Amino acid sequence: MKSVRHFMDIVLCTSFDKNANWSELMELVDYHGKMVILAIPEVPLVIPGNAFISRNVSMVGSMMGGLETTREMFDFVGKHNIRPWIEEMPMSDATAAAKHAKDGRPRFRVVMDASK
């Protein structure tokens, strides 16, 4: 992933792999960027301090709603067949995904899947 270092101003983390390499993921975030955590990790996060300090990167989290709100949302999207407009790419193709984004080719959002 060296060719995509410091490429993204915001990284939205919506799920976790127990074996995630946080040092590598933090390398995606550009200077003054943000890592936004939108899921509760199963294990403690181990992130080196220099990932934040040297580039003034911030990490923030958000619980978008409680369990009842989440259930209502899923019921609504299921009832109305609502689907996200995304392109999925495996994390193993991060370099290709970065080029895809730099070239302005994504349609809507590109989602990097760390499980692939």
UniProtKB/TrEMBL annotation:
One of its GO terms (molecular function) is metal ion binding. Keywords: Metal-binding, Oxidoreductase, Zinc. SUPFAM superfamilies: NAD(P)-binding Rossmann-fold domains. It comes from the Eukaryota. Gene3D superfamilies: Medium-chain alcohol dehydrogenases, catalytic domain, NAD(P)-binding Rossmann-like Domain. PANTHER family: ALDEHYDE REDUCTASE. This is Zinc-binding dehydrogenase.
